[in-house]
Write a structure and sequence with these properties.
The protein is α/β, with parallel strands linked by helices. Helices cover about 35% and strands about 25% of the residues. It is globular and about 75 Å long. Bound molecules: adenosine-5'-monophosphate-propyl ester. Adenosine-5'-monophosphate-propyl ester binds near residues 293, 394, 396, 498 and 510. Pfam families: ACAS_N, AMP-binding, AMP-binding_C.
Length: about 625
């Protein structure tokens, strides 16, 4: 099916998608290989949440990502992998080779007792084997749950236990910049803590030795030798789970967002094709990690469903220097480049000399995702990377939405710095006020909700459907609530203003304030803590922690030691991504008489605004505010 090519196409498609969503999405679904056609396109209830797309349909998503392309694209590059170390050789997989690798690893999983419906956790570096293993799970109907390689043993253990995984896939080590992450030893600790894992299959990324548990640990390459190459795809129902991906919410415990097969497939392919305007011979590069939703939808599934050539990168933007991205773009003639504002800001701070060394004329489309992009970063990206001629697609979406929701369509919809602009066909955004009334018109702000289902929406939070209902469908009755605040301007364009709940966005990573507080509170001697986000030049938001310690602890430790140890505790419990940027030891927190922490005040102090706190007369002890303020100023 063709792509949206101009404004008129967009208007026509958008209208169709609202007038008759079922016909619209059924037409999109026709493009794929189904083993059995669906009986019903959509069945849903937003009040007592449940949703089903393409019910009765049967398929395997990997037949659509791989087998379907073997006729015409078998020698086309599917994945072009670039190692962390620029001296290491690239690895290239054609569609035929990827298909074979996925089938073979599917047999490894089966050989190790993995069956349809089982959960498999993956804690891996960004190597082709990660994508292969994800697809192998999908091929045999196992539910994959990828955990980002930057999470700590405790965080990994919590996720393994919640998913109830019996197999963990990892690597001995994972190179990242000038560091090497000891994935296997972290995995050992996590498996011990979590329980339930019977097999750990280890990819050998480096030559260093690792600890080995006989009977449980298996080498990836040895397992491959034991199996055949062919593997029939398991036939799945459209609503069978495809994966679980953990993300942070406003309570302490991360939630397992569950996506299913048919709708996710249709939507990720549709959005990939349209937003980026991918054309047959384009080289596409998304710099995300497969441990996040962006990597799932726009490194693995979307591009492969569309038969695209993708770059997959193991390293980081600043290693060995800040020209790394641009060097790869130049060398591989990348046409479509998709990254996070935090990376743009970090590279921008390093100066133009790293950009000017490389030819970037292959670029056609630029994208951003994960957090609001500030105007300076947008302009820099547009001018210095896109040379003023590449549209920037500022794509707003979430782990829960599965795919891009509000975004320019490259070259079709006008762009506007800091605006995600317009909803894609099939997406019906609304702004609602605190009472849940829709705010009509233009030049308005409100809570961003979606009022009609789309195919790749979250189906449940793993093991706790009530939580799913409460989080997304109960704040505003009859709507999916995104947790974001949003402005609709005079042109009807949408601008995401950031989270309105207790979720922070640090370098594009989503973290709950409660999650970080729980970690801090585990440090012995901490009485309580409150964490808020504050504006940070590179990370978008930084983490500011206010911590109350008990007096005995204060007597024996220096403030500076306490801060260091508190930060180390957070790294141990969650991972480096959650390490507070600032820790302030305080004598108390500003609480109302009913015991509620007034975060509004803490946010202001973290931002460096030391007055206009509003009414603080309801505080149990208003003098606390003054002492926190003084402490903050002293710490500067
Ligand atoms: O606040 C929004 C922000 O990231 C949140 C979703 O985070 P996560 O589930 O980790 O998914 C990130 C990748 C899709 C959103 O609620 N966000 C995401 N994209 C944008 C954004 N904020 C502003 N502009 C965006 N383009």
């Amino acid at each position: 099916m063709s792509r949206i090519k101009n404004l008129e196409d967009y208007a026509v498609d958008y209208r169709k998608s609202v007038m008759d969503p079922e016909a619209f999405w059924a037409a999109q679904a026709e493009r794929f290989v189904w083993r059995k056609r669906w009986e019903e396109v959509l069945n849903y209830d937003f009040l007592d949440y449940q949703v089903e797309w393409f019910k009765g349909g049967q398929l395997n998503i990997t037949e659509n990502c791989l087998d379907r392309h073997l006729l015409h694209r078998s020698d086309k590059t599917a994945i072009h992998w670039v190692a962390n170390d620029p001296r290491d050789e690239d690895r290239v997989y054609t569609y035929k080779q990827l298909h074979q690798a996925v089938c073979q690893f599917s047999n490894v999983l089966k050989n190790n007792g993995v069956q349809k419906g089982d959960r498999v956790c993956l804690y891996m570096p960004m190597v082709p084997e990660l994508a292969i293993a994800v697809l192998a799970c999908a091929r045999i109907g196992a539910i994959h749950s990828v955990i980002f390689g930057g999470f700590s043993a405790q965080a990994l253990a919590d996720r393994i236990a919640d998913a109830g995984a019996k197999v963990l896939l990892t690597a001995n080590f994972g190179p990242r910049g000038n560091k090497v992450i000891p994935l296997k030893s972290i995995a050992d600790e996590a498996v011990e803590k979590a329980g339930g894992v019977e097999k750990v299959i280890v990819y050998q990324r480096t030559t260093e030795e690792v600890n080995w548990v006989q009977g449980r640990d298996l080498w990836w390459h040895e397992e491959l030798e034991k199996v055949e190459v062919a593997c029939e795809a398991e036939i799945m129902d459209a609503e069978d789970p495809l994966f679980i991906l953990y993300t942070s919410g406003s309570t302490g415990k991360p939630k397992g967002v569950m996506h299913t097969t048919g709708g996710y497939m249709v939507y990720t392919a549709y959005t990939f094709r349209n937003v980026f305007q991918y054309e047959e011979n384009d080289v596409y590069w998304c710099t995300a990690d497969i441990g996040w939703i962006t990597g799932h939808s726009y490194i693995v599934y979307g591009p492969l469903l569309e038969g695209a050539t993708s770059v997959m990168f193991e390293g980081i933007p600043t290693y060995p220097d800040a020209g790394r991205f641009w060097r790869i773009v130049d060398r591989l003639k990348v046409n479509i480049f998709y990254t996070a504002p935090t990376a743009i800001r970090a590279l921008m701070a390093q100066g133009l000399e790293y950009v000017e060394l490389y030819k970037l004329d292959s670029l056609k489309v630029l994208g951003t995702v994960g957090e609001p992009i500030n105007r300076e970063a947008w302009e820099w990206y547009h001018l210095h990377i896109g040379k003023g001629r590449c549209p920037i697609v500022d794509t707003w979406w979430q782990t829960e939405t599965g795919g891009i929701m509000i975004s320019p369509i490259a070259g079709v919809l006008p762009t506007k710095p800091t605006y995600a602009t317009l909803p894609l066909p099939g997406i019906q955004p609304v702004l609602v006020d605190a009472e849940g009334n829709e705010i009509e018109g233009k030049g308005v702000e409100g809570n961003l909700c979606i009022k009609y289902p789309w195919p790749s929406m979250i189906r449940t939070t793993w093991g706790d459907h009530e939580r799913c209902k409460n989080t997304y469908f109960s704040t505003f009755k009859g709507y999916y609530f995104t947790g974001d605040g949003c402005r609709r301007d005079e042109d009807g364009y949408y601008r995401i203003l950031g989270r309105v709940d207790d979720v922070m966005n640090v370098s594009g990573h989503r973290l709950g304030t409660a999650e970080v507080e729980n970690a801090i509170n585990m440090y012995q001697g901490v009485v309580e803590s409150a964490v808020v986000g504050y504006p940070h030049e590179i990370k978008g938001q930084g983490i500011y922690a206010y911590v109350v310690c008990d007096s005995s602890k204060l007597e024996v430790s220096t403030i500076s030691d306490l801060k260091t140890e508190i930060m180390a505790t957070v790294v141990e419990k969650i991972g480096k991504i959650a390490r507070p940027d600032k820790v302030q030891i305080v004598r108390g927190l500003p609480k109302t008489r009913s015991g509620k922490i007034m975060r509004r005040i803490l946010r202001k102090i973290a931002e460096g605004q030391m007055d206009n706190f509003g009414d603080i007369s309801t505080l149990l002890d208003p003098s606390i505010v003054e002492s926190i303020k003084e402490g903050a100023q002293k710490d500067e």
